[in-house]
Structures are given as structure tokens and as C-alpha cells.
Amino acid sequence: MSARSTVFFKLSAGLAAAAIGALAIVSGAAAQATSSQMRGMQLSNDQPIQIESDKLEIKDPESKAIFTGNVKVVQGTTTLQAGSMTVFYKAEGGATVTSGNADIDRIEVSDRVFLSSGTQQATGDSGSVNLTTQELVLKGDRVVLSEGKNVFVGCQLNVQMDTGEAQLEACGGRVQIQLDPQSRKQN
């Protein structure tokens, strides 16, 4: 019988913002859907969003846009990189992703996912964001969440984006945490 190790914690606002921002900024509609929370985390909708990939395939009948090959999404100091990113949107009232008025439902990323914002970073093999339920999941053999010298390692990171609460799972192993005592704020 394998033991399952899990650690619960409140994700710092900066990394939660990086995760939310990097995955939600792929369209103006997604940014509008999370604007009040993003504003509180010092991400703003007024900064330009740049998306680069080797290929973009838009499948309007299936309500999805597929970015493949060296995908890079940047807004301000937030960066998301992955091998591929699929954006699923709701095609209500003739909305399309190319017109900029699509309502994003969820986003899936895979092939070496990297999130960065300032000094905070998260890496994994794949990830997803459900904008309806405000849940972010990052999975992999080794999911690493770090800020400076503080490092958390597991296999799955679950974040409730509206509260910033996070859960790091070890999936049969043990969650590993390395904390730098110098990172504590001095009073």
C-alpha cells in the first residue's frame, strides 16, 4: 500500500497571480473574466499580451485554438512557456477567438510547462485552468514551485485561484519542502 502525502498551504499572491495571469491572459475575454482578482494581485488588463508559437490552428467548429511549438505568453513580468497550449472557448452568439470576443472556458498546456512572475516560478509536465470553477492544476513527475531559495516539490499542484489556497500532492511519495530562514520578513 503506497502512502499519499499532501501539503496544504496558501499560495503567495505573486505566484497565484503568475499562474492565473499567464494562463488566463491568452485572450481579452479571459482577462476580463478575472479582472477584479488580477487587479488585486497587481496584474492589469491594460498591459499588452504577446503570444508566440511555431503554429496556430483555430478550429471554430470545435470552439478551440491550438498553439503548438515553443509557445510563449508574456504580459508584463508574467511569462508562460509550454510545448503546446489549447484554448477552449464558448461559441455563444457567433463569438470566435479571432474576433476577440470569445468567452474562454478552459486552457490546457503541456510539454514542459514553465510559469514565472518576478522571483516566483512553477514548472511541471502539463497543466490546466478551468475559468468557470477558477481551478488551476499543474501536474508532472516533478512539479516544482519556488520563490527565491524556498522550494516545494510534488507531483500535482492544485490552486483555487479565487482564494489562492493551494494543495501540493506527492502521488505515492513524499512532498519535499526546502525553506530558507533568510526569506522571513524582519519585523
UniProtKB/TrEMBL annotation:
One Pfam family in the UniProt entry: LptD_N
Extract the signal peptide range.
Answer: 1-18
Among InterPro entries, the record links this protein to: LPS_export_LptA, OstA-like_N
Cellular component (GO) terms are: cell outer membrane; outer membrane-bounded periplasmic space
List UniProt keywords, sorted A-Z: Signal
Any one Gene Ontology MF annotation carried by this entry is: glycolipid transfer activity
Residues forming the Organic solvent tolerance-like N-terminal domain are: 50-164
Among the GO biological process terms of this entry, one is: lipopolysaccharide transport
Top-level taxon of the source organism: Bacteria
Q: What protein is this chain from? A: OstA-like protein
Q: Which organism is it from?
A: Sinorhizobium sojae CCBAU 05684
Q: What is the lineage of its organism?
A: Bacteria, Pseudomonadati, Pseudomonadota, Alphaproteobacteria, Hyphomicrobiales
